[in-house]
């Protein structure tokens, strides 16, 4: 059966010392969270090694926020999946809407990145989600279906054991506007249906699908009560250990 996970995405926030303190605070507060709930923190690249030293050997897993679409070599400024793995990460986020919007992340690049992440023993949190214009035009199912299929059609049922999907409606990210639990559940169920068509019922049942978009302690319980919502990818609220752990206590 699939795992419930709460993953924090720190984005481009905190200095290294601040990040180390935040990781320590998350770790300390994590004692309150039932052992079966997965806790992941995704930090900037600069923070991975020192934060890995804080969380090594604990229940808190570490993620990068992105990785390169090339294995290694002359790609100045890029960070490879192998580097991320060697820094102590178990995960990387891929396809976050901010990367799609500001850094030209295409589904084609995401296929390459996902291949490299899996080949290097990383699990992937693959983000999908429509923007406001697409939602208002009633295209949200089509957009999410295309994003999901364009990437996942290149992977096998076995690969899916290392892939978590995060549905993040772009209009709800950092805006304070959360999708209602019913709006989120509708898309989560749709994604699970796509996985069933692509990989069969077992993979569909076993895949963790997170919701992301202005999730906080006050709305997490209603979202997580839905049968196809298996946790959250948390931006703003992950920068306060108390709020992040408050969300993880909402199952
Ligand atoms: C995110 O960026 O993944 C996110 C969900 O952000 P926020 O929680 O701040 O809306």
Any chance you could write out the topology, listing elements then pairs?
Blueprint: E1 5-9, H1 16-29, E2 38-42, H2 48-55, E3 60-64, H3 81-86, E4 91-94, H4 97-102, H5 107-119, E5 123-128, H6 132-136, H7 140-152, E6 163-167, H8 181-199, H9 201-206, E7 209-212, H10 217-224, E8 231-234, H11 241-248
Parallel strand pairs: 1-2, 1-8, 2-3, 3-4, 4-5, 5-6, 6-7, 7-8
Helix pairs in contact: 1-2, 1-11, 5-7, 7-8, 10-11
The site of phosphoenolpyruvate (PEP) has 13 residues, from β8.
Could you characterize what this model shows?
This protein is of the alpha/beta class. It has eleven helices and eight strands. It has helices at 16-29, 48-55, 81-86, 97-102, 107-119, 132-136, 140-152, 181-199, 201-206, 217-224, 241-248, and strands spanning 5-9, 38-42, 60-64, 91-94, 123-128, 163-167, 209-212, 231-234. An eight-stranded parallel β-barrel has the order 1-2-3-4-5-6-7-8, surrounded by seven helices. β3 (60-64), α3 and β4 (91-94) form a beta-alpha-beta unit. α1 packs parallel to α2, α7 runs parallel beside α8 and α10 (217-224) packs parallel to α11 (241-248). The longest helix has 19 residues, at 181-199. 45% of the residues are buried. Bound molecules: phosphoenolpyruvate. Phosphoenolpyruvate is lined by residues 9, 168, 173-174, 212-215, 233-237.
């Amino acid at each position: 059966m699939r795992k419930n996970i709460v993953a924090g995405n720190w984005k481009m926030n905190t200095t290294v010392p601040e990040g180390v303190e935040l990781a320590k605070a998350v770790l300390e507060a994590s004692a309150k969270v039932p052992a079966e709930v997965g806790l992941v923190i995704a930090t900037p690249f600069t923070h991975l090694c020192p934060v890995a030293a804080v969380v090594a050997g604990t229940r808190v897993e570490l993620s990068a926020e992105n990785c390169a679409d090339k294995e290694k070599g002359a790609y100045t400024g890029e960070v490879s999946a192998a580097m991320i793995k060697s820094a102590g990460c178990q995960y990387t986020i891929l396809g976050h809407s901010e990367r799609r919007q500001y850094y030209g992340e295409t589904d084609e690049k995401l296929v390459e990145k996902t291949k490299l992440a899996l080949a290097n023993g990383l699990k992937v949190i693959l983000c999908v989600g429509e923007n406001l214009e697409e939602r208002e035009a009633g295209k949200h199912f089509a957009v999410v279906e295309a994003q999901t299929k364009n990437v996942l059609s290149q992977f096998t049922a076995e690969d899916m054991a290392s892939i978590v999907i995060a549905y993040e409606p772009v209009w709800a990210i950092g805006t304070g506007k959360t999708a209602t639990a019913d709006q989120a559940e509708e898309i989560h169920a749709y994604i699970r249906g796509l996985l069933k068509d692509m990989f069969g019922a077992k993979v569909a049942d076993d895949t963790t699908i997170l919701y992301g978009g202005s999730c906080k302690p006050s709305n997490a319980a209603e979202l997580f009560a839905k049968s196809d919502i298996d946790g959250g990818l948390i931006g703003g609220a992950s920068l306060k250990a108390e709020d992040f752990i408050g969300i993880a206590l909402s199952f």
